[in-house]
Amino acid sequence: QVQQVESGGGSVQAGGSQRLSCTAPGFTSNSCVLDWYRQAAGKQREWVSSISTDGLTLYEDSVKGRFTISKDKAKDTIYLQMDSLKPEDTAMYFCKTRGSRWPCNNSSWGQGTRVTVSS
């Protein structure tokens, strides 16, 4: 299995910004879709945003207008720019690829990166 690597988490005050990175080997050359998820303490993991190699993006309603997903094809890296952060954005953030081709369809969950937003 191929594991993505998340980074960029940290502690920030409400209203602040944080940029997360996800290194996803094979993302660009194999037309993967990359999803960001998050899991708050005591809650189920939830989908946050997606991006395809064609640049199509999707966002969960609560982050629309605040989060921006983007990609660097040359680095096989996907970013999640998070602005106007709220305490309810506090969670462990994970990224994962999907698609019809390897390695898109053979990814496993990484260790995630923690984001803590204080009020």
Task: Describe this protein's structure.
- This protein is mainly beta and 119 residues long.
- Helices cover 0% and strands 50% of the residues.
- It contains no helices and 12 strands.
- The protein has a 6-stranded mixed sheet with strand order 3-12-10-5-6-7, with no helix packed on it. A 4-stranded antiparallel sheet has the order 2-4-9-8, with no helix packed on it. It has a two-stranded parallel ribbon with strand order 1-11.
- Strand 8 and strand 9 form a beta hairpin.
- The radius of gyration is 14 Å and the shape is globular.
- The mean pLDDT is 95.
Could you name the key traits of this structure?
0% helix, globular, 12 strands, single chain, six-stranded mixed sheet, mainly beta, four-stranded antiparallel sheet, 119 residues
Write down how many β-strands occur, each being a DSSP E stretch of 2 or more residues: 12
Largest sheet: 6 strands, mixed
Hey, roughly how much beta strand do the residues contain?
over 45%
* Strand adjacency order, main sheet: 3-12-10-5-6-7
How much helicity do the residues have? under 10%
Mean pLDDT across the residues is: 95
What form results from the Cα inertia axes?
globular
Number of helices: 0
Stretches with pLDDT under 50, minimum 5 residues:
none
Using only CA atoms, what is the Rg?
14 Å
Order of helices and strands: EEEEEEEEEEEE
- The class by helix and strand makeup works out as mainly beta
Distance separating the two termini:
39 Å
